[in-house]
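Per your request, structure below.
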């Protein structure tokens, strides 16, 4: 029988979530990039999701916004005059994903129930809360895509193998 740790489960599920985020991003048609949903363009919903993942997964109290960030850019109630490009958000996703992978690689099992500096929340709680937030917004993005294209973006389940060959990004 295989012995699991909380840390290894978090690493595995985070990798599956990151793969799914990238695939959903790849499934967004260019024609939807600036289309408004709930009063905000699709790209802003994506940025909100990625920014929250970046800020809250590790330590929201010790965080620096990305260089292109402007006040209110991540707020789904604040209009933004200039859209972010697909390339900007793809690059940002890569940065966030690598940052999270490095963080998880540095964690020990006993670190999970400790609070990071200046935070009143444990590392485990921050990670779990971001998985919840991420999947809520990922589902919203998938809904926009499904409603407009009739196609369901592929995501990885608990035991699905990570694709290693060319694959259809939709189910």
């Amino acid at each position: 029988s295989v012995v699991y740790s909380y840390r290894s489960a978090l690493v595995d599920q985070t990798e599956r979530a990151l793969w799914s985020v990238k695939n959903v991003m790849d499934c967004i048609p260019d024609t939807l990039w600036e289309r408004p949903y709930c009063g905000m363009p699709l790209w802003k919903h994506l940025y909100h999701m990625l920014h929250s993942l970046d800020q809250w997964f590790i330590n929201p109290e010790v965080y620096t916004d990305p260089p292109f960030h402007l006040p209110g850019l991540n707020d789904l109630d604040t209009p933004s005059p200039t859209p972010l490009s697909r390339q900007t958000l793809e690059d940002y996703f890569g940065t966030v994903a690598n940052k999270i992978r490095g963080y998880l690689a540095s964690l020990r099992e006993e670190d999970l129930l400790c609070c990071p500096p200046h935070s009143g929340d444990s590392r485990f709680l921050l990670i779990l809360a971001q998985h919840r937030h991420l999947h809520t917004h990922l589902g919203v993005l998938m809904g926009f895509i499904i409603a407009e294209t009739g196609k369901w973006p592929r995501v990885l389940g608990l035991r699905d193998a990570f694709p290693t060959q060319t694959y259809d990004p939709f189910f």
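The longest strand covers residues 36-37.

Regards,
D.
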